[in-house]
Write a structure and sequence with these properties.
This protein has 337 residues and is an all-alpha fold. Helix content is 68%, strand content 3%.
Amino acid sequence: MPDYLDYTGKEKAAMLLITLGPEKSAKIFKHLKEDEIETLTLEIANTTSVLPDVKEQVLEEFYQICIAQQYITEGGINYAKSVLEKALGESKAVEIIQKLTVSLQVRPFDFIRKDDVSQVINFIQNEHPQTIALILSYLKPVQAAQVISSLAPDKQADVARRIALMDRTSPDVIKEVEMALEKKLSAMMTSDYADVGGVDAIVEILNSVDRTTEKNIMETLETEDMDLSEEIKKKMFVFEDILTLDNRSIQTVLRQEIDNRELAIALKGSSEEVQDVIFQNLSKRLAAMIREDMEYMGPVRKSDVEEAQQKIVNIIRRLQDTGEIIIARGGGDEVIV
């Protein structure tokens, strides 16, 4: 039987997944890349059994690494090392930290993520819009929303546009920005490029800002880049987000000129939860009619479902603009928009 230290990281990962069982392993697979899943699946298939003492060692090592990663998140490498040394001794602490630093990727600008937002605003508000866009892409959406709301109106849309159009940023560029801000870039970035920004990033931020800031940004983008503004609009409120509306708002939407067949098609491709909340806000007779339409219309093309859902979303957006409905904004506050 091989010594535990002789097992490779890949073999230990496979044994860990076997030990955790299919349900927990499936959840872990959701966070892995396709090639990683293929590699681990092959390794699991080639692993005939895992001895009880090996299971214990695999779980113990996994637990120690998880704890170490939590310490790093809370206070950095030095803090994690200090805590682990007190708990496990110097040699064991060094061993765990070394394992982590091989694969752990510390997010750039992590020092800003832990700062008070007001300090961040003072720190970066006079920077170039591209620099601000890069930094905000790494902040939590709620933090980024507060920062972008504090910028001058003419700079808000500029920064928003730069975030949306940002794709991949070279680590060298990130390093230069951090050095300019007199901070060190983490030495643990392992990939050649870091995914950052994009439409999804600016949508998350816009969903958290106040309505005035959002409106200013979107109106400016509509003028400067119509295609981009339309792409952002489509993701700002999707059909499933109907669940975030209160019953009064849903009833207001359903009172608009919505064709019953289009509503049936839209619901055909939605979750049961959305269907239930819609039917609850319709009369029993109309709900029964639409259920019947859904049952007898047979399979529906995805494009038809998306088109029907988008028409309803457009109605919701219009009602937001006229202030006729209330939606939940970022941070849990309800804002009339």
